[in-house]
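Contributing new records

If you add data, match the layout below exactly. Sequence lines come first and carry their own label; structure lines follow with theirs. Keep one chain per record. Anything else will be rejected by the validation script.
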Amino acid sequence: MSNKDMSYNRMMRRVFLGGGTAVALIAAAKTGLAQQPTPAPQTPRLKGPLVWLDLDQAELDAAYDQSVWAANSQQLLKRYATNSNDVRTRLAAPQRYAYGATPIEKLDVYRAERHNAPINIHIHGGAWRSGLAKDYAFPAELFVQAGVHFVVLDFAWVQNVGGSLLPLAQQVRRAVAWVYHNAQHFGGDANRIYVSGHSSGGHLAGVILTTDWRRDFNLPADIVKGGLCCSGMFDLKAVRLSSRREYINFTDAVEQALSPQRHLHQLNAPVIVAYGTLESPEFMRQSREFVAAVQAHGKPVQLLVGEGYNHFEIIETLGNPYGLLGRAVLEQMHLAERYPNYPRSHHYPRSYQN
């Protein structure tokens, strides 16, 4: 073997043993190995005209497309469904009721053993165009174990009702009214109704919290005693400018009527607002500005920021009594003491306790 060959073999042994210095060693040896092409530099994308704040159209569209910000979104949606099935094996199938005339207007009730128990009504996400109640039962066990009936709503997908969000808003409102009128049938306390929602469901939870219940349903103005709006949208102006306008028929009337941030004079309950630090900047901005607006109206609000959570991960903490959202809703409902050694943070003033 020539001195050159022996030198080459020693070098390659060091490459495989050294791992991280392989490229430098090969470049220095100059032994005739094939040279790897240098990756072509990325051509910077030319920014287009601004459409919203400092965002051009492509940036705004991406800001309202969760798949851009959460590469594991499909995995997590499947996990919602799997975990919901697991919960049903432990809690048994829910009682299912119709709250309206159309086939989709039904809700699932996961009953607590307590009689006259408080109720949490959950509104799932799905960009207003997907999602079923059965796949969003994964938080039910937390509520049932704490002595709370957990109600999950089914409602129309926007593409099935002419692209209008108004029917969705009316359906979830009617569902809340149905629960109020029928709570006694499943052992619930109509005077202790809470709502929670995630993503587009967080938007609809905001709509519920800012509904004029006395005018529209002849019900008490404070029918809802507290709410959680997780990763939601609270003013539809920016959403209307995004690619979501391709499947939603936005009008001035819809934008005004269904922007909760514009109706805070109707807010009669403390609200928790939450988002993850790995969400799009628009979803973070929506939550921060909603909280600031609620504070400006002098009403109780708590902002939770989930460090290291993306849009689809943060809602899973609702199923954990020691998780970010589970802890918060139990405190809001004054049920945290049901879990041993539960640390209390006393976020909610006595005047809002039931």
